[in-house]
Amino acid sequence: MTAAVMVVAGRRTLASARGFTLLELTVAVALLGLVAILAHGGLVQTLRTFEHSAQSIERVMAWQRGLAIMGRDIEASVPRTIIDINGARAPAFVAGPAFFEFTRDGSFTPPGVLRSTLERVRYHYLEGALYRSHWHVLDRTSTTQVARERRVLDGLTDLTIRYLHEDGRWLTHWPRIHNALPRAIELQFAAGGAGQVRRLWQVD
C-alpha cells in the first residue's frame, strides 16, 4: 500500500513539474496579445488627445497674440486725418462691419531712419481670417506701397465689429467725420471649439 501510494505521488509530482500544457500556453499568449492590443489602443487615444489639446492651446495663444497686437494699435490711435490716393482728405478713423482703418502713434523707427512715428493701420476680415496692414506714409499716392500685411487671427467662422459713438450708440459703420474717433471698439468672433469670443477696447 505504501509503495503504491508513493508511486502515485511521485507521478503527480513529475506531472506538476512539467510546466504549462500547450493549451495553457496558447491561452496565455492570446491573453497577452489582447492586453497588448488594448494597451496600444489606449496609448494611441492618449496621444491623439494630447495632440488635440496641444493644438487647441496653440490656437488660443495665437488668438491672444493677435488680440494683443490689436489692443496696442487701438490704444495708440490718434485723430490725425490723411490724404488718400485720390488727393482727398480722409478721416482719421474709417470703419465698416468687417474693417477699420486709423492713424496710430508710437511705431518703431530703426536707428538712422528719418520718418514719423505715426503710421496708418488697417484691419480687415476675409475668408475666416483677420488681417493687419500698415503704411509708414500717412499721406499716400497711387505709388505708395503697404509696408506689411499679416494675418493676426484665423480659424474664425464669424466676425462682427462695432464702434461706440459718443452719444452711447453702437454702430457698425463709422461716420466719415474728419477727426472723430469712437469711444470704444468691440470685436466678436466665433471659432471652432472656442465658442463666442468678445473683446472690448477703449480708444484713448
Description:
34% of the residues lie in helices and 31% in strands. By secondary structure, it is an alpha+beta fold. The protein has a domain at 66-202: Pili subunits (Roll), CATH 3.10.610.10. The strands form three sheets. Strands 1, 4, 5, 6, 7 and 8 form a six-stranded antiparallel β-sheet that branches. The chain has a four-stranded antiparallel β-sheet with strand order 10-9-11-12, with helices on one face. It has a two-stranded antiparallel sheet with strand order 2-3. A hairpin with a 2-residue loop joins strand 4 and strand 5.
Short description:
The protein has 204 residues and is an alpha+beta fold. The protein has helices spanning 2-17, 22-75; strands at residues 77-78, 82-83, 89-90, 93-96, 99-104, 119-126, 129-135, 148-153, 156-164, 170-171, 184-191, 195-202.
Give the helices and strands, then pairings.
Layout: H1 2-17, H2 22-75, E1 77-78, E2 82-83, E3 89-90, E4 93-96, E5 99-104, E6 119-126, E7 129-135, E8 148-153, E9 156-164, E10 170-171, E11 184-191, E12 195-202
